[in-house]
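Ticket #4471: structure export looks truncated?
Reporter: QA, pipeline team
Priority: medium

Steps to reproduce: submit the single chain below to the structure queue and open the exported record.
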Amino acid sequence: MGGVRFVAFGHVRVLIDADEVPISRSRERQVLACLLASRGVPVSAHRLATDVWGADAGASTLGLLQVAISRLRSLLDPGRSRGANGLIVSTPSGYLLDAVAASVDLWGFEDGAARLLAQREPDAAECAALAARWLPPYAGIDVAGPRRHADRLTDLYADLRLAHAKALLRGGKWSEAVRLLRAMAEEYCFREPVWCLLALAQYRDGRQADALATLRHLRLTMAEELGVHPTLATESVEEAILRHDDEALHGYLTEPSAVLLTPGRRVREPVLFGRDAQLAQGAEALDGCLGDRSARAVLVEGEAGSGKTAYLDALTRLAVERGFRVVRGQNHPGRLAPPLWPWAEVVAPLTGEPAERHEPPKRPATSAGSVLTLLREAAGATPLLVAIEDLHWADAATLQLLALVARTRVPAPILLVATRRTSVVPGPALLECVAQLSRSGAAHIKVDALPKEAVAELLGSRLGPHFAELDDAVAELTGGNPFFVLQYAALLAAGADPGHDAALNPADPHLPEGIRDVLRERLHGLPASVASLLVAASVMDVIAPESLAQLVGRPLDEVLVDLDVALSAGLLVEDGVNYAFAHAVARKCVSSELSAARRVRLHERAGRLMRAARNLDRIAD
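Actual output as written to the record:
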């Protein structure tokens, strides 16, 4: 038996003393593949018959299985005596392949990878040598057991390559690590550790702007394709790169690899739904810049999840088609980046130097002249689109410089595009900047709720054909917010029943975690008095300011001020002289902040107030 070797990288083969044993029948190869995939764990005859011959396999199929087992035994153990088990063993629990790991290429790969990945700092050369043995396993075998084993092996192979990349980074081989990780990023579109390590390698290679662009691309891809945000681990890597926190980044290198998502799904060309009018506005601004060769400004506004970044990407593609060069700078939450960082990102590609090497002056007025000169010279050769993203997180200096550049109206084909989240209560610096942009003639482009037709298209792009009732339910639940629509699409694609009341009942909707996180962040970003007022209002079907003031025991004038803050944050909408939650999921999320006991008491009190109000109305009539 020592001369028998099993190969399942690529096609399933058997070698005896280096000579291949021909297995001519596909069913026998499939049975052998199932035994290889189980790795010493008995597989019942019923399971083998069902996996190989299909779910409709009947009693007669067991006879066919026994014939296949008998033929395999004769091929693998030609000298085996009748009744002896040989390599294929019969047990009370089923059949198993009695082989050692060294005789099965897949088993040897598994053991070697597990050994390396268990080490805190595996050797780069060993990782590379083992990874070089890889071929897609079980080629041509479409059977459940081998398919599951192939998926596990593919994930193991990815982790092995990640370990190789980490070893390269620890050894200071930045460029080599970038090449390996860039190739992996093409294969594993949503495996976050790959993108984090690529960003880290670029950062170590002295390319901080490229590193941040890599993480920004990951965030956009996950939002558009999966409708989710990156994990906290990914955000911590971005924060560490912004802070130049080498200690935190070194800690990331020593953590074990983690498989987060199954690889292999390619990024589709992004499609923008329901934004034809807004794109037409952007195209008009681009054409205007080209027509009179003068600078123009555009402010793109919308709540969280409304698709501002997706719109900016679509506008960017239009600009490139018209011959524009595009440079982008992004603000970051929590004041992580230094002042004027977005402008450093804009300037870097125009000067050919990394953004982190630019030391912008502390006063924006002193930098405006040099920035304007640089933009004018760059646009003299090629029309320019300059995008400054997420103004709601911008520092005062960045906002002041943006207003100065917009107000100057450079005599060159430059389109200045800024984006901001309307669901964040603006501070004085942002309000002043927006006012200056308006006075300079900037076009305001609202990226607001999608109409039901666009919700149907967006759902169709993720789910395929579906019932029209689903469009109505999701549109009502989400208020047309594209991010929320994608969250429900992901929920349904994962197996939820599209007609299931628990998932899509507007009165008590299921909240996907992505939606819950976004809304909770928005709620807790409000002043405490506004947040507590909304929590109380969540028990009311109609939010009448007078009744709400009585419910919470506060003066009506104060309640009206806080309601206006919630309105500007996008959690409420006006309903005549009253208010309502912007969408059912917002009300559900806010309501979840209440304990069961408090919710019951508020419901009872709100009911009494509403009945009293109706009685007064009848008396008045």
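Status: closed, not a bug. The export was complete when the record was re-opened. Leaving a note from the reviewer for reference: The chain is about 55% helix and 10% strand.
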